[in-house]
């Protein structure tokens, strides 16, 4: 879990914040971002990319600025 963290994107191309991998929903793992800020340059950053069949990423109470692509 990341708490009160700033994630700063440095690339102006297509970028991804996470690529979490789980093979099953019964696995007890994933990424959590709580009270964080996502900042940076560009406007083509995605929150995540599925790597395996059941990825788990949670963004709770996180400020996301205009760098996040509306598609996700």
Automatic annotation (TrEMBL):
Pathway: Glycan metabolism; pectin degradation; 2-dehydro-3-deoxy-D-gluconate from pectin: step 1/5
Enzyme class: hydrolase
InterPro entries the UniProt entry points to: Pectin_lyas_fold, Pectin_lyase_fold/virulence, Pectinesterase_cat
Domain Pectinesterase catalytic: 13-72
Gene3D superfamilies attached to this UniProt entry: Single-stranded right-handed beta-helix, Pectin lyase-like
Superkingdom as given in the UniProt entry: Eukaryota
Principal location class: secreted
EC number(s) on file: 3.1.1.11
GO BP field: cell wall modification; pectin catabolic process
Gene Ontology terms, MF aspect: lyase activity; pectinesterase activity
Leader peptide range in chain numbering: none
Protein location: Secreted, Cell wall
Alphabetical keyword list: Aspartyl esterase, Cell wall, Hydrolase, Lyase, Secreted
Pfam families: Pectinesterase
Family as reported in the entry's similarity comment: Belongs to the pectinesterase family.
Alphabetical list of PANTHER family matching this protein: ACYL-COA THIOESTER HYDROLASE YBHC-RELATED, PECTINESTERASE 63-RELATED
Protein name (record): pectinesterase
Taxonomic lineage of the native organism: Eukaryota, Viridiplantae, Streptophyta, Embryophyta, Tracheophyta
């Amino acid at each position: 879990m990341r708490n009160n963290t700033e994630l700063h994107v440095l690339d102006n191309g297509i970028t991804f914040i996470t690529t979490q991998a789980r093979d099953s929903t019964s696995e007890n793992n994933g990424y959590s971002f709580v009270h964080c800020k996502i900042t940076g340059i560009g406007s083509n950053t995605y929150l995540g990319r599925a790597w395996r069949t059941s990825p788990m990423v949670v963004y709770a109470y996180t400020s996301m600025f205009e760098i996040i692509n509306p598609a996700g």
